[in-house]
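Appendix B. Extra example for self-study. Work through it before the problem class; the solution is given directly after the inputs so you can check yourself.
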Amino acid sequence: MDVTDTRVTLCGVELDNPVIPASGCFGYGYEFAAYYDINVLGTFSFKGTTREPRFGNPTPRIAETPSGMLNAVGLQNPGVEKVIAEELPKLAEVFHKPVMANVSGFSVDEYVDVCRALDAEPQVGWLEVNVSCPNVHGGGMSFGTDPAMAAKVTEAVKREVKKPVIVKLSPNVTDIVAVAKAVEAAGADGVSLINTLLGMRIDLRSRRPVLANVTGGLSGPAVFPVAVRMVYQVAHAVKIPVVGMGGVSSAENVLEMLMAGASAVEVGAANHVDPFACKKIIETLPDAMRRYGVSRLSDL
Amino acid sequence: MKDAPFTILSNAPLTNAVYELTLAGDTAGIVPGQFVNVRLPGFYLRRPISVCDRSPGRLTLVYKVVGAGTDALAKRVPGETLDLLTPLGNGYDLTKAGQRPLLVGGGVGVPPLYLLAKELISAGKAVRVVLGFNTKAEVFYEDRFLALGCEVTVATADGSYGVKGFVTDALPENYTYFYACGPVPMLKALCEKMKTEGELSLEERMGCGFGACMGCTHQTKSGPKRVCKEGPVFRKEELLWT
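Solution. Structure tokens for the complete assembly:
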């Protein structure tokens, strides 16, 4: 019998497949819908949203690295009010599945406000609380590198929302397991990892940092082994579902993440070099499953 | 936008650092001022390059070797294929030209003006072109613009060819609208001097080239805009200079 079943479950919600474009790499979705039918996706995580509109960091925001890239976008987004009024209606026309709402903040109150607003949107299936953006100052990653702070954000958000809360973790810590356990204890329904690794490049001619923000987050295939290791460690230490990400570029990478213990897989930088990356991964997934003797992804 | 294979027909230097690359492939839908994003084996990010010319099935790109990626591109030979995302961005608005449009290009900002000039000439416009370079050895495409029937002035910063100075030292008096592409200091100086409305093409480091990563955002009078998506061409009135 030659049947492959790509369905997985994420915090009680069934996905047709585990492939999820990662936040910051897929906008609010509707632009990719001009290139392919984005309903083939498991879901996607939309652009990190804050309470107020943010321009983000000055340019250059992007630098190339061996097998990857640095970005220092700095959470550019129109603010939660506009996201609900303008972006979500546009998305509703082209995407008919629950979407993952990615939320960032500069205070516990901001995380709570934005999560509460998005929790009320019927299109939203999960809240992905990003305590790990490396490119903003006084917010983002400063919440995710301290287990107690990460737990505080999680607890405050959980008290106010009904939908599953997935906390997005930073790899820029000594012990990611400690942060994962802290947010699990604080009530998180899942964790997603890894956000980008803090990095930097210097232009030899100008002798100055390539990025205007000096540092940025490293993503792409270069970080994949680090991500697999961290997903493996966290998945073996917590009982809540783990969403694996970091350099995933192929159906084989998806299988590897699931084997490391992930319940679903986010795809980030690959969407930038190939706008059809997620569509191709989904199309080639059944064949990769057959090659490696996997009939049901949920068995992994 | 599509992801399409193109076959290299030629890839030869025009000057010491500037190369002209001609490709065979699907050029449908490309308008002046748009760009393509070229995938290069061994490099993670694509290289955005403006379209210099296109005809059905044939594409011309002119690029400057500025780093390892463009250096690798310069080493590609006829017969090899390149993977291109095309067409990308918003091009120039030809309907604004009036009868005597002025085209101003600086250095490697000159190429996208070629297809624009070609289309304006075929629309019956009297096209005036001002091209700026650092020195005589860096001048390219003057002959091509002349062959189209444009009136061409070249300025060199060191005075080794044409008018001595910058493009702003070589501007004509009478024109109906302007189109420009070049380095930011040139565009800024130009905007201060121009008497009419006009459009400028900006350059920025890009992640994706098609609006997904927010890597190339510029602040404008109407809010943040992506150079790759709402641009690369912006109206003079929309731009903020810092």
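Self-check: The interface with chain B takes residues 24-27, 31-32, 34-35, 47, 55-56, 59-69, 71, 73, 76, 220-221, 269, 271-276 of chain A (CB under 8 Å). If your reasoning did not lead you there, revisit section 3.
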